[in-house]
Amino acid sequence: MKKQNVSLLKRSIFIIVIFVLAAGFIFGESFKPRFYLKFGGAGSTMKAGDFGDFVTISDTYWQKVSTQPSAYTYTSKIPSQFLGGSGEIGIETKRFSVGVSAGVIRKQVKMDYIYTSDLMGGSYTFNGQYTFTAVPIFLLFHYKLIDSKMFTASLTIGEGVYLTTYKEENTRTNNTTSIPVTTETLKGKRNQPGFHAGATFDIKLTSNIGFYIEGAYRFSKLENINAEYTTGDTGSTTPTKDTLYYTLDPNTKTAFFSAGKPKDALNSRTAVFKMNGVSLSAGIKITLGKGYKKEKPVALPNEGIE
User: Fold this and answer.
1) pTM for the complete prediction?
2) Which of 135, 179, 200, 259 is close enough to 214 for a disulfide, judged by CB 3.0 to 4.6 Å?
3) Distance between CA atoms of 222 and 233, rounded to whole angstroms?
4) What integer pLDDT is reported at residue 70 of this predicted model?
C-alpha cells in the first residue's frame, strides 16, 4: 500500500511539473509566479460508508428500545456533518496555480445508555464514543477561468492520499461504585489514494489578502482496514490484531465493528469506508509578491521624419 501511495504522489508531481512548464512556455510573459497561503475551516457531507450505516442503525435501535417499557435510558450526540480545518501552500500565475493542501475532518459520535441488570445486580451506565478522522494530503491544480481585480474563479483538480482512522471507545460503569467494570477500545487504520475535483472562488480585498471558498467532490474507497481491539477488566488488557469487519445482526437489527470475523456471524464482511462526498472549505488567502500589472509599452522616438 505504501508503494502505491508513493507511486501516486510521484505521478501527480510529474504531471503537475510538466503542466506548469508547458503553461510557462505557452503563456510566456504571463508566467510570473507568486507564493500563496490558504487556511480556514472545512466540512464534508460524506457518510463514510459503513461508519455512517453503523451510526444510523445503532441510533435507531437504541431510540426504539428507550421508548419501550424497559430499564434503558438512552442519550446521544450525533453531528450531522464532518467538520475540521484545511490549509494550502503553493505558487500562482495569471492563469493557474499549483499547491499542496493538507487538513483534517472528523465526526465524533456519542451514544450512552443507563440500564439495570438483574443478572449482574445493579444499575450500569454504558458510554460509547465513535470517532472517524480523515487527513487528506493532496496536490492541487487550479485553472483560472475568471481573473478580475476583485474576483477569481478557478476549476480545481487534484490527487492525493487519505490518512484515515476509526476509533471506538466503550466503557461500562457500575453506578453504585462509580468504577469502570469493562473497557473496550477498537482502532482501525488505512491510507488510501483519492481524487478531488471542484471549483475555487477568491474574493480579493487587496492585491495580497482575500477570502476563498472551495467546493469539491472527493472520491476514495478504503478496504482491508487494519484493526486492533483491546478489552479488559480493571486495567488488564488483551490486544487482538486483525482486519476490521462489519456485522449486521438480522435478529436484533444491530450493527457493530470487530477485529476479525466474529464466530457464528450470519451477515459479516470486511468493513468499507467510502470518502465520496461534497466538501466545502473557506478561509483567508495571503499572497506574497507583486500583482499582475501589465507593463506599459515604451514609446519609441520618431525616426526618419521628413
Assistant:
1) 0.79
2) 200
3) 33
4) 63
